[in-house]
Write a structure and sequence with these properties.
- This protein is of the alpha/beta class.
- The protein has 2 domains: 7-227 and 302-310, Spore Coat Polysaccharide Biosynthesis Protein SpsA, Chain A (Alpha-Beta Complex); 229-298.
- The protein is 50% helix and 16% strand.
- Strands 7-5-6-4-1-2-3-8 form an 8-stranded mixed β-sheet, with helices on both faces.
- The longest helix has 33 residues, at 266-298.
- The radius of gyration is 25 Å and the shape is elongated.
Length: 311
Amino acid sequence: MHTDKQVLSIVVPLYKGECFLDNLVWELESFALSIRDSVSLEIIFVDDGSPDRTFEALKKISPQHFTWKAIRLSRNFKSYIAILAGIKESSGHYITFLPQDLQESPELTTRLLTEIKNGYDVAWGVRKNRSDPWLEKFLSKCFHRLMHSIWSAWPKTGADVFMITRPIANILLDIQEKNSHITGQILWMGFRQTHIFYDRGSRKIAKSGWTTFSKIKLAIDIITQFSYTPIRICGILGMATATLGFLYGVFIVINKLIFGFNVEGWASVMLAILLIGGFQMIFLGVIGEYLWRIFDEVRKRPTYIVMDRIN
């Protein structure tokens, strides 16, 4: 039962998290003891459709120094949806999240809380460096630089962890967007935001399920949800291609009528057809991405489905 102290809610998304649970609870117990003089700790575990016995293992825990609840989603909706589900279940004055492997440590939460109490509505944790494979690191750097160039509020190095106040959480829950991302939604809100830098710990158990394909899909979702730049690029390329085609046509007519040159070259004709056809297919694909998201929104399907609860 919470005291009169303010409550800090931490959402912990779990996927195949059975092997992490013992260490996770132990670390959270220690963290709860370290902050008990300032805030009460509430933990919301969200089992994101784990195929193992993660949810059954949750039923056996009995922490002494923090209150907790757990929900089980009907399938794997991905971590950012699980975080959103946990935020909805939370009751704290401040809300954040931690990964099941604690690569972001609970101590980072203390630093974010300090920033929030200094008058900010949102505090971000930004990694100083990345230990990913070089290809993923390169793609991640390109994505964040691209997002920053089309949306200045987006940090150049991206943002991995956040803490928000209850009013921000309520607005976030009212947005109800699919194929989106919490990072973009919070940045879009505005309010008073700040960030701190931190060193991320190494993964000690198991392997990340966050694949390169998943990251690419997420990047497409964020760009199409928060920017019209791809559509604008298609328009500019279309106008440029049409202009080049017109100028080339004028060039051919002048050569034929004035200089009497014969118009030859099937290779150049086929190249032009393939080039323009390729552009058209890309443009249709970009338009299709936006149309799919419109269709997915108007169906009004729930963002996630809760299958079971504890506490």
